[in-house]
Amino acid sequence: MKRLIAPILIGAVFGSFAMAKDMDMKAEIEALKTQMNELKAAQKKINIKSFRKQFYEVKAHDAHDNIKFSADLRTAYDVIDYKINGAPSQSNGVWTNKFTLKMMAQPRNDLVFRGALGVYKSFGYNGVQPYNSFQNMDWYADETPSGDADFRLKEAYFIYFGNMGKVPYTVSFGRRPAVNGFLTNYRDDDDKPASPIGHNINMEFDGASFMWKLENVTGISGMYFKICLGRGNSNADAKYPAFDNFMGTLGGSTLFATPTPYGKTDLNSANMDLAGILMKLYDDGQYTVMFNWFKGWNMMGANITNLTNSGNPLNDTYKVTLKDVGDLTGGALSLQSSGIGDGINDFLDDTNVFASFAWSKTDPKGVTSTIANATGADPVVTANMLGSTKSETGTSYYVGVNFPCILVDGARWGLEYNHGSKYWRSFTYGEDTLVGSKLATRGNAYEIFYDLPLLDKFLTAQIRYTYIDYDYTGSDMFFGSTGTPMDVDTTPGAVKSASDLRLSIRYRY
Fold it and tell me: What was the pLDDT predicted at 9?
C-alpha cells in the first residue's frame, strides 16, 4: 500500500506544479494581450501623414541645408614648341598643378547656388615680368599658369527656377560658367559642357542669363531659348586713384585734381559689354543642335610702346595699354550626335561626332591703335580694327569624333580639326591650351587625345597633342593693331606653327 501511495503523492505534487505553471502562462498571455491592445490604441492616435511629412522635411533639410564640395586636381607636363619665321625655334617643358574646389547648395527646390575657386600653379617660380600687365587678365586668369598659389574666382552664381504657365524658366546672376562649353568638353574629358558653344565663346566673365524651356509649347524635343548678358571690361578708376589726375607743379608742389574714385580711367576706354542669345534648337538625347548669336560693344585694341628700342623687336620690352576700337558680332551653329545610327553595334552606339560653323564681323569706330618707340618719335600708326579700316568678316569650322578604345575598357580616343579664315575672331581666351587657343587659329589646328581611367572616374590619365599651323598672325590677340592678319611666311618674327604635347593625371571626387 505504501508503494502505491508514494507515486500518487508525487504525481499530485507535479500536477499541482503544472497547473500553477499553466495559470501563470495564461496570466502572462492576458497581460501581453492587454499591452498589445494599449499599443494599438496608442498607434491609432498617431498622425501617420504628419509623421511622414516631418520625416521627409528632416531628410530634405539634411540634403539641402549645406554646401557640398568636390575636388578636381590635375597634374600635367606640357612640352611646347614654336616655329618662328626668321628666328630659332622655341621649346620648353612646363610642369603645372591645376586645382579646382567646386561647391553647390540648394536651400530650396527653386534655388541653387554653384561656385568654383581655382589655382593654376606652375611648378616653382615662373619668369613672367612685372610689366606684363595682362598675365592675370580676368578673361583667362584661371586658365593661365602662374608662379603664385592664389585662389581665383572661377564661378559664383545662383539659379532661380520658376514657371510661366507651361513654360519653365530660370534666372541667374553672377560669375558665369563660361569655360569648356558645348563641344569643347570632350577634349577636356568633362562629361557635361558649360553653357556657351565653346567654338566661339570660351572665356570667363560676369553677367546674367535668362532661360525659357520651350519644349512644352513648341513640341520640339529639348528646345530652349536663353538670353546672356556679360561685362568683359569695367571702366572704373581705383578707390584711391593716384597720378591719374596729375595736373602739374606750382612752386615745387605737385598739384592734383579732385580724386574721382570709380570714375572713368581713360576717355578712350569704355565699358566692354556682351549680349547674345543661346538656343538649343533640338535635343532628343542622341542628336543635339545648338545656335548662338552675340554682339560685343567697345572691343579693346592695344597701344604698344617699345620701352627699349634696341633695334631687334624680339629682344625689346613693350608696354601695352588698351583702348576702344569698335564692336564685334558673331554666331555659331553646332550639331552633335551622341552615337552613330541606332543599334548598329556597340562601338558606333558609343561614338560621338560633331560639326560646327562660326563667323565673326567687325564694326570699326575709325580710331587708331598706335605703336610708338621709346622716345615717342616717329610713331607707327595702324588703322582701326584688326588692321582694317572697314568691316571684315571671318569664318571658322570645327569637327571632331570621340570613340571608345576597343582594347581597354573605359578608355577613349578623340580627334579634332578646326580652320579659321584671315579675319576670324573668337572669344576663346580661356581655352586651356598653353600655346594659345587652337579655336582662335587663323589657319589649321589638329588635335588627338587619349583618355584612360586608372581608378574608375576618380583617377584618370590623358595624353593630348595639339598642333597649330598658322596662315596669318593675330590669332587670339586683342582687337586693334595686334590682331592685324599678316602672312606668317613673309613677316619676320611671326609664329608659323605651335605644338603642345600634354601628359596629365587627374583626380576628381
Answer: 45
Compute the distance between CA of residue 432 and CA of residue 198 in angstroms, rounded to an integer.
Answer: 12
* Residue 213: Cβ within 10 Å count: 19
HSE (side-chain half, CA atoms, 13 Å) at 339: 12
Which secondary structure element, helix H or strand E, spans residue 211, and what is its range? strand 206-213
pTM over cut 0.85 = no
Helix (H) or strand (E) holding 228: strand 224-233
Percent of the chain with pLDDT over 90: 60
* C-alpha cell at position 504: 596629365
Q: What is the largest CA-CA distance in the chain?
A: 150
Q: Could you identify the residue written with the cell 533639410?
A: 61
> How far is it, in rounded angstroms, from Cα 233 to Cα 365?
18
Distance CA(350)–CA(345), nearest Å, equals 9
The architecture CATH gives domain 69-234+274-508: Beta Barrel (2.40)
Please provide residue 19's backbone torsions phi and psi, each rounded to the nearest 5 degrees. Answer: -65, -40
* Domain boundary assignment for the chain: 69-234+274-508, 236-269
Query: What are the φ/ψ torsions at residue 310 (nearest 5 degrees)?
Result: -80, -10
Phi-psi region of 416 (alpha: psi -120 to 50; beta: other; left: phi over 0): beta
Q: What are phi and psi of 205, to 5 degrees?
A: -160, 165
